[in-house]
Amino acid sequence: MKKLELLDVFSYSCMNCQRSLKYIQKLHDAYARYGLRVTLLHPPEWEFEKRRGNIESFLKQNNISFPLVLDKNKKNIKKFRIDFWPTQILVNRGEMIYKHVGEGDYQKLEKAIQKNLGVAKKPIFSSEPIYSKYPTLYPGKKKGGLQAISNKIESKKIYGQGFKQHFEYIENEKEGKNQVMLQLKTMGTKVFVVARSLNKESSIIVKTKQTITIDTAKKAMKSSNKKVITKKMNAKGKTRKIKIGKPLLYELISFPKPAKKIITLEFEGKIALYAFAFQ
Q1: pLDDT by residue (tens digit) across 205-234?
Q2: What is the residue-wise DSSP string for 142-160?
Q3: Sheet holding 239-244, edge to edge
Q4: Cα 265 to the chain's mean position, in Å?
Q5: pTM (2 decimals)?
Q6: Which of 124, 181, 211, 223 has the smallest number of CB atoms closer than 10 Å to its CB?
């Protein structure tokens, strides 16, 4: 039997990596019997991703049993000249024969697998999977900080000093209702946050408000001159509470269809916020 190695470069708290991993799992299920072997190559995006226990806990929770190589010092990805993930690499007899950086091109990957394993069967990807493409926001100093994403995120100081900015994350300096709020403009149908609790028990309270537009006609001095005035009113929206514990990717909220809304985050306990992702 022929053997072919598929290296999936990913980090466990990365939304795009988690999404891509679902398609890698499908390829494994279809071609493992023909000699395809999948290995997860994990370079750390954050300090907490250098701990094998955090990664293994995520894999176990999601029933993922692929062998794991922790690329703690990023030696392997430097060898393959990779500085972005997810990335898929096919290795045949020690030689890299295929490389794709980012999500997508799963049809091309499957064709390369079939060719190198000598498999002639109906492909599992009859068409290229469709996925959303929204930028991830990083509030920590490592990737520009709050100033770099000021058009997408707003730190609103109600009481106290708001947020303390660290190299990798921001931290709410006060906690509790109406102490510190963070407003975020949404994209897509789902909003995620990479976060970890700095206390034993912490939560993020997510609030959304629906915007209702009302058009009214206001009569001017002359009956022939009418002006339409548009008023925006905020109706009572939804409130959701998410418990934050270990460093993970947490889903904050989902919408039935892509929406541009403003959500407000309040905090119970001290929480480190690393990134906001959208799907």
Answers
A1: 999 875 433 333 333 334 444 444 434 434
A2: GGTHHHHTTTTEEEEESST
A3: 153-157, 180-185, 262-268, 202-208, 239-244
A4: 17
A5: 0.85
A6: 223
